[in-house]
Amino acid sequence: MNGKLKIFSGNANIPLAKSICNFAGVELGKCNIIKFSNENIKVRIVESVRGQDVFIIQPSCSPVNEGIMELLIMIDAIKHASAGRITAVVPYFPYARSDKKDEPRISISARLIADLLQTAGADRVMTMNLHSPQIQGFFRIPVDHLLAGRVLLDYFNDCKTDNCVVVAPDAGSAKRAGAYAIRLGLPLAILDKRRSDDSEKPVIHNVIGDVKGKKAIIFDDEIASGGSIIEVITALESLGVEEIQACAVHAVLSGRASERLKNSPLTKLVVTDTVYIPEEKKIPQLVVLSVAELFAKAITFTNQGESISGLYDKI
């Protein structure tokens, strides 16, 4: 039997942490996080965690590197406060796109993050929609990889999808987008998108599937700078699409992404709350769905020693 459930949060996404606590029926744990003038961080856990089952919620939000250090120091503080077990709940995993050595003399940074979490003292990790599911293999501790597919599908099943087509923005996302298309009973189109450098400006070469005169729903795992999705929107416009909606799990919206999307022909942008979205980045087209209940169930089931396989969705 695991210890009493305790949930703490770093500063990255406190609204999500509070919502998870509401669904789990527990109070958010008390801790003080202080940032000194020299940018060093101090964490003090205000309540006892001795022998308890502790979950720390900290997705990769801006400022990313500060959030990582905050999480590592929180894990270390709770470890040395004699917690029974520590789970790092990282809804949006940092450096997930740096998952392979595809250039000479570069770091596989996602593996480095995995090593740091384990070294700090995490006993298990819980995350959502990894850019590459293989990142789970970087860990030698249990990893629960939740998927937001059920949350997104419930939303679109309640919407009118007549004359719609699901669009995969590149070949890498075709399998995932194809699963959405099957579950929604819609056709699938795939764009041939290629990147030649680190400029975040991909180029669309071809499209596989019929999109002319249809309402397109673009499915992707995340939206960062917005460069990729803007290229997809431009390509779909040129192919005679009637209307364009987009859906992504992680709304990073870095740089001028919000402004670019606001001024685009996009009619709707559906995302989840894995990443905190400040008010200045919220645009009229934005719809934010919460994954708090899904994480709350996964956390409580894990604490009670029950299987969470029923929460998994294959998309």
Describe the structure.
The protein has 315 residues and is of the alpha/beta class. The chain has two domains: 5-147 and 292-310, Rossmann fold; 149-289, Rossmann fold (3-Layer(aba) Sandwich), CATH 3.40.50.2020. 28% of the residues lie in helices and 25% in strands. It has eight helices and 14 strands. A seven-stranded mixed beta sheet has the order 10-9-8-11-12-13-14, sandwiched between helices. The chain has a five-stranded parallel beta sheet with strand order 1-4-5-6-7, sandwiched between helices. Helix 1 crosses helix 8 and helix 2 runs parallel beside helix 3 (109-120).
* CATH topology (level 3) name of the largest domain: Rossmann fold
Any low-confidence stretches, pLDDT <50, length ≥5? none
Strand percentage: 25-35%
- Give me the strand/helix succession: EHEEEHEHEEHEHEEEHEHEEH
- What CATH architecture label of the largest domain applies? 3-Layer(aba) Sandwich
Q: How would you sum up the global shape?
A: globular
Strand order of the largest sheet: 10-9-8-11-12-13-14
Main sheet makeup: 7 strands, mixed
Give the domain tally. Answer: 2
Count the DSSP helices: 8
Can you describe this structure in just a few lines?
It contains eight helices and 14 strands.
State the main characteristics.
alpha/beta; Rossmann fold; 8 helices
